[in-house]
């Protein structure tokens, strides 16, 4: 069991976004490839252990100061291996100050059969901050004939704007997971699910709805079920979310909030 930490801070100085803070502890490491011309600074997360086992803890903290811009991704798909009891816990805190923009687009997380994962992602947005991010979860290794039939999954997202909750979502799977995934009212046998969240910088997300729905109808392959929704804060701004299983997440969210591991 290990406890990895990655803290990354960016700030804008002289008209350029620069790295201002970095702390990393095994098995988490951060790489900084040279971005393409015109792109924001790029940070790439990786786990040197090659995957996560029961009892591992990861704490990821990303902070952008006012006016900064950055893109964060991962070097490869994350693997969560079978556990005989302990739960893997991942906590991700993304803080984006006013006028800053963060793209948080990690690759997929693959849940081996028997994996136990608790992951919480909190996004704190300042006024006029922009955010594009999400996650992909894969139920087992289908190419090897393996499905995610037993174990535990708790996936939680919270997005706040100036301290006010504007969007939250949770999926909770345990006990007979195979039956839940196969149920027509839940995942209907899906091999994976994904969520993409957009909080556009200085723009009303309602202006993106029609275009997003048109793109989904044109580009979504046969068998992929997807939708686009909108959440507005009390003052009228908000975020657009495109969960591939919005209904499933709503139905599977635990009514009794469990204690984190």
Protein architecture, described:
This protein has helices at 177-182, 209-219, 246-252; strands at residues 3-13, 16-25, 28-31, 42-47, 57-64, 69-74, 78-80, 88-96, 101-104, 109-111, 116-125, 130-139, 152-161, 164-174, 192-199, 229-232, 238-241. The chain has one domain (3-252). Strands 3, 4, 6, 7, 9, 10, 12, 15, 16 and 17 form a 10-stranded mixed sheet that branches. β1 (3-13) and β2 form a beta hairpin. The protein contains 3 helices and 17 strands. It is mostly beta strands. The chain is 9% helix and 46% strand. It is globular.
Which secondary structure elements does this structure contain, and how are they paired or packed?
Elements: E1 3-13, E2 16-25, E3 28-31, E4 42-47, E5 57-64, E6 69-74, E7 78-80, E8 88-96, E9 101-104, E10 109-111, E11 116-125, E12 130-139, E13 152-161, E14 164-174, H1 177-182, E15 192-199, H2 209-219, E16 229-232, E17 238-241, H3 246-252
Parallel strand pairs: 1-5, 4-6, 5-8, 6-9, 7-10, 8-11, 9-12, 10-12, 11-13
Antiparallel strand pairs: 1-2, 3-4, 12-15, 13-14, 15-17, 16-17
Q: How far apart lie the N and C ends?
A: 14 Å
Secondary-structure-based class equals: mainly beta
- The whole-angstrom Rg is 18 Å
List the total number of helices: 3
How much of the residues is beta strand, in percent?
over 45%
Biggest β-sheet: count, sense, barrel?
Answer: 10 strands, mixed
Q: Low-confidence stretches at least 5 residues in length (pLDDT < 50)?
A: 242-258
Oligomer: single chain
Gross morphology is globular
Helical residues, percent = under 10%
Number of domains: 1
Quick one: how many beta strands?
Answer: 17
């Amino acid at each position: 069991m290990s406890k990895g930490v990655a803290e990354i801070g960016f700030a804008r100085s002289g008209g350029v976004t620069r790295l201002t803070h970095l702390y990393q502890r095994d098995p988490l490491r951060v790489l900084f490839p040279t971005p393409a011309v015109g792109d924001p600074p790029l940070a790439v997360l990786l786990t040197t252990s090659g995957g996560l086992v029961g009892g591992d803890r990861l704490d990821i903290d990303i902070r952008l100061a006012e006016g900064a811009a950055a893109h964060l991704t991962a070097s490869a798909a994350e693997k969560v291996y079978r556990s005989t009891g302990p739960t893997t816990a991942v906590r991700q805190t993304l803080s984006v100050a006013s006028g800053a923009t963060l793209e948080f687009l990690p690759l997929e997380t693959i849940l081996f059969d028997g994996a136990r994962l608790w992951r919480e992602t909190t996004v704190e947005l300042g006024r006029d901050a922009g955010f594009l991010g999400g996650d992909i979860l894969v139920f087992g290794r289908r190419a090897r004939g393996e499905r995610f039939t037993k174990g535990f999954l708790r996936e939680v997202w919270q997005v706040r704007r100036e301290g006010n909750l504007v969007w939250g979502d949770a999926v909770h799977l345990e006990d007979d997971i195979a039956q839940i995934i196969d149920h027509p009212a839940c995942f209907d046998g899906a091999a994976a699910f994904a969520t993409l969240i957009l909080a556009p910088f200085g723009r009303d997300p309602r202006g993106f709805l029609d275009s997003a729905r048109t793109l989904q109808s044109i580009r979504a392959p046969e068998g992929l079920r997807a939708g686009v929704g909108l959440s507005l804060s009390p003052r009228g701004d908000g975020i657009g979310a495109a969960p591939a299983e919005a209904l499933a997440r709503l139905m599977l969210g635990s009514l009794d909030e469990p204690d984190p591991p």
